[in-house]
Amino acid sequence: MTTVLIVDDEPQILRALQINLHAHGYTVVPAANGTTALAAAQTHAIDVVVLDLGLPDMDGLDVISGLRGWSEVPIIVLSARHGSHDKVEALDAGADDYVTKPFGLDELLARLRAAARRGGSQASQPLVTTPEFTVDLANKQVSRHGEAVRLTPTEWNVLELLVRNPGRLVSQAQILSEVWGPAYAKETHYLRVYMAQLRRKLEVDPANPVHLLTEAGMGYRFAL
Amino acid sequence: MTTVLIVDDEPQILRALQINLHAHGYTVVPAANGTTALAAAQTHAIDVVVLDLGLPDMDGLDVISGLRGWSEVPIIVLSARHGSHDKVEALDAGADDYVTKPFGLDELLARLRAAARRGGSQASQPLVTTPEFTVDLANKQVSRHGEAVRLTPTEWNVLELLVRNPGRLVSQAQILSEVWGPAYAKETHYLRVYMAQLRRKLEVDPANPVHLLTEAGMGYRFAL
DNA sequence: AAAACGCGTCAAGAACGTGTCAAGAAACCA
DNA sequence: TGGTTTCTTGACACGTTCTTGACGCGTTTT
């Protein structure tokens, strides 16, 4: 999941970008001025910044240098000015890209992808950790005390579904239909067998699970 | 000293850029077509690539993906086309920036500085080494105990895909569709044959692989 | 209090996936 | 064109995973 910080003083543009980027799978953190932008960049794990230079409280260039003071997050500058001088200044201040308005959404999305790709190396990994074991969603790997744990495909599918909904109750029917297919929604026996196997591989005391919990008659829950 | 590879089929533009960039302290490597560009990128230590998409011998996009196959060097695309679709394609192919002609020299210089700033830090070698063998992504060569290992094209493609995702589980379907094409996504037998060949050539004990691992029912994983 | 139900556990056969060898077909190169 | 390399395909043994049934235990319902 990529998190984008959008800085723009025009509420309608902010809203429009927010909606569109969210629709394309990005997590969006909005900011209407430079001060909140800099604050948000410190409190959130930002992967890319989209920055409109025309801000009410401070010069956009100062926002760039403010960010560059401590972060190497990719910055895409939006601006209505076509002047070459403005581009030079923004890029030299530390921006990574410069897009002039009006721009097509697909172009912005492409530049976002390019920027996120670059910064991607440092971005947060889809890792879920508990005191006992770690689930690496991207690499499909589970480790316990540093050692890799072998899971069968079905075991993995069940675990992944639960881990992707941490703390949430997942009904048996939902697990069964997502892992085995809708036709198997009532084969609750499968679940018992596989939950037992997962617990045997992951829990310290399989008979008294701490993370893979049963809610009798309802479903299962993954607790951190 | 920053070295820039300039790819443009128009001799006068090539000359003009060469002179101007040199005047600004850059070392310039010129190339008039895609083939020489890709060759030059391997023989010279390039810091930034400036690429005109309109080339006589091959599609500019193929030049981008050709470079991206082994290098993360920043690529700035020059193009006469303003169409948003072209920008999206170039950026998604792996370009870092897109400048439409006509452009001011100072803007190009600023984008060059921004690109060089980014690329400067990494200087990652396209070499992957394990205690047993070494994979040279750039030169498409594998050596074992200092001796070159002969791989067939398909063997190489499979190995490359795995090595580019170290530690990550790559599904059989993904390998098959990337190497043989989407239509072959279910021809898992191919994979078994080729994994066996790779292991025979690279593993100490092919029957007990250490680096080219099988995750039954899920896919394969390259471990360092 | 007994029965019914849901859950966890174990074990075994069936079904499926994998490794290996080998040979014919196709592609490539000189 | 001939010779070589590479790809595709088949057969079989082996290992893993899935499915299924049986049983014990605890909780809830009758």
Going across the biggest sheet of chain A, name each strand in turn. 2-1-3-4-5
Task: Give the CA-based shape of chain A.
Answer: elongated
Strand segment tally of chain A: 12
Oligomer: homodimer
Please name the two chains that share the biggest interface, counting residues whose Cβ lies under 8 Å from a Cβ on the partner chain: A-B, 30 and 31 residues
Mean pLDDT of chain A: 87
Structural notes for this entry:
The structure is a homodimer of 224-residue chains. Chain A has 224 residues and is an alpha/beta fold. Helix content of chain A is 41%, strand content 22%. The first copy, chain A, contains 8 helices and 12 strands. The first copy, chain A, is elongated, with a radius of gyration of 23 Å. The relative contact order of chain A is 0.09. The model of chain A has no long low-confidence stretch (mean pLDDT 87). Chain A binds chain B through residues 84-85, 87-88, 91-92, 94-98, 103-104, 106-107, 109-111, 113-114, 117-118, 138-141, 150, 152-153, 156, and chain B through 84-85, 87-89, 91-92, 94-98, 103-104, 106-107, 109-111, 113-114, 117-118, 167-169, 215-219. Chains A, B: Residues 125-224 form the OmpR/PhoB-type domain. Chains A, B: This is Response regulator.
